[in-house]
Structures are given as C-alpha cells and as structure tokens.
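ugh ok fine here u go
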Amino acid sequence: MHWLLLALLTALCLALYNFFIKLAAGHISAAAGAVILQLVAAGLGSLWLVWLRLKGQPLALSGTGVGLAMLAGAGVGLAEILTFVVFGRGVPSSVGTPVIVGGSVLLTAVLGLVVLREALSWSQALGLASIVVGIALLARGH
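structure:
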C-alpha cells in the first residue's frame, strides 16, 4: 500500500480517536478514559504482534528501540489524559482538535529541525507558519 494512503488512513484513525475522546469526556474521568483507551490500544497492538509472529515475521528489538517506544508511549499517554481534560472543559472539537494536532505537527517539525538537523523548504516553512496562524485564530475567544 502506498505511504500516502496509509498516512490518510492514519489521519482517519486519529480523527476518530479525537472525536470519540470529545464524546466521552463528559461521561468519564480523564484518568479512567485514558486507561481504558490505552488498554484497548494495547490489546489491538498485542493482536497485531501475535498475528505477525504467526506469519513468521521476524520482530526487530533493540534496547534503543524499546526505550524510544517507551518514551513515545509516555508522550501519548499524557496526551490522552490532557485531551480528555481539554474536552472535559467544554472546548469544541472543532477548536481543540486542530490546536492539539496542529501544535503537535508544529512542535514535531521544530524537533526535527533542531534535534535531527532536517532540512526545511520554503513551502514547508510557509506551511508551518500557516499552522501557527491557524492555531492563533482558532484559540481566539476560547
């Protein structure tokens, strides 16, 4: 499958993730919601891991990879809790999600530039500047 199709499918899954957190936020505490979400995600990941093993695919593991995956897990766990908190405060999904996701994209790009020394074209810089303007416009009045 082409990477762009996979990326768009991932975007759909993240959209559903944010949408259902918004719906759940008024019905469950942030901590309980995040734990349930993470348990379901861990279950799906475990099923995928078992399926890959049954197909005989080798699974690469290294200390560095495990450590970085754990840091990513800590980041997503905290993000889940904070997303429940944000939406629990009544922030509209049409405002909160773009600010959270846009901010995430912006900060990830900055980390890529500063830490990984990645290059940035003028069109990409314009795109990142557009995210900053979009976040500022969305956050006004909320």
